[in-house]
Amino acid sequence: MANEKNLSFRVLALPAIAFMTAIARLEVQNGDKLPKTGSFVLTPNHFSDIDPVIIGWSVWKLGRVPRFLAKASLFRVPVLGWALRAVRQVPVERTTRTSGPAAISAAHDLAASGEGVIVYPEGTLTRQPDLWPMRGKSGAVRIALENDLPIIPVAHWGTQAILPRWSKKISLFPRKTVHVSYGDEVDLSDFRGVPLTQGILVEATDRVMTAITGLLEDLRAEPAPAERWNPADHNQTEFGAL
After folding, report:
1. Does 8 fall in a domain?
2. Whose CB has fewer CB within 10 Å in the chain, the N or C terminal residue?
3. What's 81's domain CATH number?
């Protein structure tokens, strides 16, 4: 863990954290749930394009380095692409059939080196009208089960006040409060050491989504809809390789 916050990460993190501190107040609950050392898979909810910055900031504050499965298109942006590669983020081609295995392989490499990886199990911004988590995809649990890693759920609320879903306009003032809550490791013990059938991956993913939703219910102080949103049932398109 001592080498996680290398020079490249520190140089790039400082201005980002300074900017976020100016526009947002971060309140983290149960940060002790994030492992202090060793590999892990962190699974956040997702409803704003600024979510990764918020989750990355919270992970950094807790002493770990945030590494994401990130859209491959970002790696082709001048300067930004260089920065993402310098801090070993993982590119994901969201529109190809081969991108899932490639991204999972890259995540395996991070896990093998004792680092954590952040995977959005929804694969993209939620399509649920009220910003509740929608149906998840199996990439996160596959990484966790294939590498025998803990999978830690986390939920946040408040980023929509900074950057609404599908918006490109950031609200700078007044300063917003964003709440982040970490949960207990999702119990997948009954799925470890057995062949990963599609049925197992679906059930394990559902447990993860249930844990994330429960954390968000607490932050929002209201119950989520009884049925989890499935874009396919509403003729919605979605992208996300995992």
Report:
1. no
2. N
3. 3.40.1130.10
